[in-house]
Amino acid sequence: MNVPLLDLKGQYQSIKTDIDTAIARVVESQYFILGPDVKALEENIAAYVGAKHAIGVSSGTDALLLTLMALGIGRAMA
Asked: What is the pTM of this model?
């Protein structure tokens, strides 16, 4: 029996219209960095997790780096 781990195609199909509309809006506005859609996403995420603020970054690596920098954690000295 083959049990799929994650069906992204099925998930996408269920919200395709919303995603396609959002992508078209961003492409037409040319706000690929910052802009009203990013601000709205950050506000929605902050509200969802019960935080005052949320910051959108480009990757999980950037999120980890930003966290380490905020905590003052740098290179280990030998």
From this structure: 0.67
